[in-house]
Amino acid sequence: MQPVKVGLLGLGTVGGGTVNLLERNRDEITRRAGRPIDVVHAAARHPDRARTCSTEHMRLEYDAFAVVDDPDTEIIVELIGGVDLAKELTLRAIERGKHVVTANKALIALHGNEIFARARDNGVTVGFEAAVAGGIPIIKAVREGLVGNRIEWLAGIINGTSNFILSEMLYAGREFGEVLAEAQRLGYAEADPTFDVEGVDAAHKLTILASIAFGIPLQFDKVHMEGIGQISTDDVAYASELGFRIKHLGICRREGDGIGLRVHPTLLPERQLLANVDGVMNAVMVNADPLGPTLYYGAGAGADPTASAVVADLVDVVREFTLEPENRVPYLAFQSHSLSDEPVVGMEAVDTAYYLRLEAQDEPGVLAEVTGVLSQAGISIEAVIQKQPAPGAETVPVILLTHRVRESKMDAACQAIEALDAVHGSLVRIRVETLA
Amino acid sequence: MQPVKVGLLGLGTVGGGTVNLLERNRDEITRRAGRPIDVVHAAARHPDRARTCSTEHMRLEYDAFAVVDDPDTEIIVELIGGVDLAKELTLRAIERGKHVVTANKALIALHGNEIFARARDNGVTVGFEAAVAGGIPIIKAVREGLVGNRIEWLAGIINGTSNFILSEMLYAGREFGEVLAEAQRLGYAEADPTFDVEGVDAAHKLTILASIAFGIPLQFDKVHMEGIGQISTDDVAYASELGFRIKHLGICRREGDGIGLRVHPTLLPERQLLANVDGVMNAVMVNADPLGPTLYYGAGAGADPTASAVVADLVDVVREFTLEPENRVPYLAFQSHSLSDEPVVGMEAVDTAYYLRLEAQDEPGVLAEVTGVLSQAGISIEAVIQKQPAPGAETVPVILLTHRVRESKMDAACQAIEALDAVHGSLVRIRVETLA
After folding, report:
1. CA distance A340 to chain B (A)
2. What ipTM does the predicted assembly reach?
3. Active-site hit among B98, B205, B222, B247
4. Domain A350-432 indexed as CATH 3.30.70.260
5. Where in chain A is CATH 3.30.360.10?
6. Binding site annotation covers B10?
7. B4-127 has which fold?
8. SS (H, E, C) chain A
9. Where is the active site (chains A, B) (predicted)?
10. pLDDT tens per residue across span A28-37
């Protein structure tokens, strides 16, 4: 069969990785897909710069629109990143009747609803496996592998940088700031690490995962985000003492009144597989009915893993070239006319268990006061640690683990605890999920 | 759109689970697949027996051939198990131009080459996601998600019964026979547990996984099988002391001279995720180039997980109804004309590290003799434990961990060690894989 002709937008790390993969595994891919896939035309910001990949067999130029408009390109792969220009190019490709494959999580999370509507109008596919958890085929697993299931919740380590930092804090006892600086030196974290450590990047990915899990439109603005900058090595150590590890999770779950979407540090029982995913690796756990829990683990970023997902999408698109659109896998797993308007609820309506740490006056009766407040609020306690005071200190750290409780209740109880005379400063609150 | 009409062969645990799933999640499935899926005609060995599922909206009868021949059924789901009758029915459905979905690992491992050839001649699909690792979408992940990769090796816990037994031996310190008896009481293990604990069931699944990973024909007869019946709680405990856990793995890997296919007890470093997959759960780790390692975890058996995989296949088949066969995902991941004749090598050509345990005379110089034999054979030692003798015993247990070595070399070295006067009885040998 004829080679498939691809137009590639962006020839940076991931773009170069994709070209290299298509060349290195050309035989393997052809044996599987039934035909080779060739990048015939590419756009790069600096076309003359030295590259990590060969550009011998392709036209290479500055103008990305020329690649989109080239009648020779059948599929457009968007790897330029950013949002505005990427959106413009994607919509233009769609209008030209071309299928699009993208690794751009921000683009899909923020503008996916519009992009998919236009793609539907034009009868083309938009593949975005590479946008979530890098090389892990998680979009495919949820959209297709779990197609017979009703998904109850999904929880994932979907940002490698924050997972690397938390792993180092646990295993090397190093502080957040120090590890972050190292991650920046190693190139794991961007110069501006906000997207990673504040949870924005994870929230983009969670937005996409939640839509394909529950069949709801993409709603990035409804995701509750908390970063890991406030996590101390003390908390990591206390959690460990209690049999837990702290992970930065993206979680979506059916709550009583709707769907909760949140990214925050979370204590996980150390025997949970997800708690043992360390370093820059990613993993997503999905609990589905009737299947039960499944977990998907792998490299969540980098040129090679992302290129692996881009090529998987390319082969899928090629296979579906001749398929009438209504028989293709729907963009968001559910048929476009069947998306649900189930509300996304605020954090006040979410139930989780809690890890609480506070500094209390070292005197009799304080623990009784604190637990009394929780008890009055109907919050059960699972475990308590009260530490010895540090030499010369007047306060002692008290750590409590609660049972599951509605967040609004916990907010009120925490205010009441902080108002106690014997409690100094503010509480450290970290949510706990057992994933059971 | 019109409902898809399915003919179901076998209404036992999995068949009933499939009917229940299609009914309970009918709305969810319709929203995803674009049309409902109905079982319209089913065959059961005892049509009048009480069932776990409703049979109200289907014809139900004894004769499975009548279901296959019914012009009303568009897809045949084969869940009767066994090999001969299942094969006859599957081939008949294929000849009638019907797509087939099966959960029958023995059928595919033993007769898949023939079945796929006939299916190709008749332009129909044969889905077998449910045949390997139950509800984990591992076939889809490898065939489609990793389509751009060259797979280097794959290692999986693909039999829940043997994993349950090994987990109990580790965590409860119980002996093999005792746990096996309990597994039989609980219904995890068959009355004849040979298929599970001797590795036959795992070998069926490994045969299938190896074919889709490497693009080779199904070659069940080339799989080297070892069971877990010889593993003692002593070995489980010594392995633990060395930082390892013993798992019953199916492994396929590119060795120097071909592909190795083997099922055997294996020591894994305890920090490996795969080492932490406990109880009846399954997991498969795949190392691919350029993606690196990925892992897929979930329930490997049971009515619900298997039904989940059957329904995923049904939806895939429905989506591909109108797709010309050359654009469908190939049965064994690679185009039929592109299967490889790469040889499957025997165990003598496989490299692994080794755990060795022997009983040695409690006298000076014995350890030097043993390590001398290994050293002469060019086998490096990674760790040694020599235990105190039990009260009144004349021998002491010696445990050695070696580096990777060609199996044929290790065979010779073990014979030489067993021939030493100071070594009593035969060596316990368990392979070690670091999966790194």
Report:
1. 10
2. 0.96
3. B205
4. yes
5. 145-300
6. yes
7. Rossmann fold (3.40.50)
8. CCCEEEEEECCCHHHHHHHHHHHHCHHHHHHHHCCCEEEEEEECCCCCCCCCCCCCCCEEECCHHHHHHCCCCCEEEECCCCCHHHHHHHHHHHHCCCEEEECCHHHHHHHHHHHHHHHHHCCCCEECHHHCCCCCCHHHHHHHHCCCCEEEEEEEECCHHHHHHHHHHHHCCCCHHHHHHHHHHHCCCCCCCHHHHCCHHHHHHHHHHHHHHHCCCCCHHHCEECCCCCCCHHHHHHHHHCCEEEEEEEEEEEECCEEEEEEEEEEEECCCHHHHCCCCEEEEEEEEECCEEEEEEEECCCHHHHHHHHHHHHHHHHHHCCCCHHHCCCCECECHHHCCCCCEECHHHCEEEEEEEEEEECCCCHHHHHHHHHHHCCCCEEEEEECCCCCCCCEEEEEEEECCEEHHHHHHHHHHHHCCCCEEEEEEEEEECCCC
9. 205
10. 999 999 999 9
